[in-house]
Amino acid sequence: MKTESLSPKILLLWLLLFAAIPLLMVVVTSLLSNATTQVASLPFTLAHYKALFSPLFANVMLRSLLTGLLTTFITLLLAWPFSYIMVKSRHQSVMMLLIIIPFWTSSLVRTYSLVALLKTRGLLNALLLKLHLISTPLPLLYTNFSVMVGLVYNLFPFMVLPLFTNMERFDFRLMDAAMDLGASRLRAFVKVFLPATAPGILAGCLLVFLPAMTLFYIPGVLGGARSLLLGNLIQNQFMLLDNWPQGAATSTLLTLMLLGMLALFRRRGVSL
């Protein structure tokens, strides 16, 4: 009984120490003035939030949103049929293992492995030259294409797992019942099966879209200086420009956006 009563208190203490207090420190830092000899100093100011309405931030935000949406769309196109095949397959454990194995290594290591694949003298260009599909190596690395490949590759499991979990719970006898009542296979699929997978689709899209907007090391490694996304902007404000209040203000705005999206998905009954 004592253990059960202490568990919520321990969880509350953990959230307070490692979530609420750090977030509060970020918000307070965003309201302070920038200083050359220390992280931040008085007086309080809203100048860093006003700077978020600049053309530079608007361009980075728009590019991040488009990258996140495109990454989510491509990942969904690949993950949905893969999850469906996995549900129907007799080799679910093998296919699931192929999804889980990449998690055994750092995503940063996996991202650097793509450099060897996409560089001018990399494996992909060598294969295309060997097959005589191209005459000169393609400039694949340090492009928007390479960033998209890295994001989709690293975030693919986050789309597959909720889709597979949702599809596995579906009673496929409902499809047979719909066809027995006169519906075609396509109509039964669209009207019965597809709506049943909507929670998995929404959960997977959320798990992919949010990191795709904010991951900074994938655009940094595969896109170079030209691929500046929101995560890279925050990193530069903290590490390169040494402007902690501006970085904190950008992080606070991003956190509010993400919390708003989470609240919207929760209202629609999507659980993560």
TrEMBL record:
- UniProt keyword list: Cell membrane, Membrane, Transmembrane, Transmembrane helix, Transport
Q: Which GO terms describe its cellular component?
A: plasma membrane
Main localization, broad class: membrane
Biological process (GO) annotations held by this record are: transmembrane transport
**Highest taxon above the source species:** Bacteria
Localization annotation: Cell membrane
Topology in membrane = Multi-pass membrane protein
Database matches in PANTHER family: INNER MEMBRANE ABC TRANSPORTER PERMEASE PROTEIN YDCU-RELATED, INNER MEMBRANE ABC TRANSPORTER PERMEASE PROTEIN YDCU-RELATED-RELATED
Family indicated by similarity? Belongs to the binding-protein-dependent transport system permease family. CysTW subfamily.
Q: What is this protein called?
A: Spermidine/putrescine ABC transporter permease PotB
Look up and give the organism this protein is from: Legionella geestiana
Q: Which gene encodes it?
A: potB
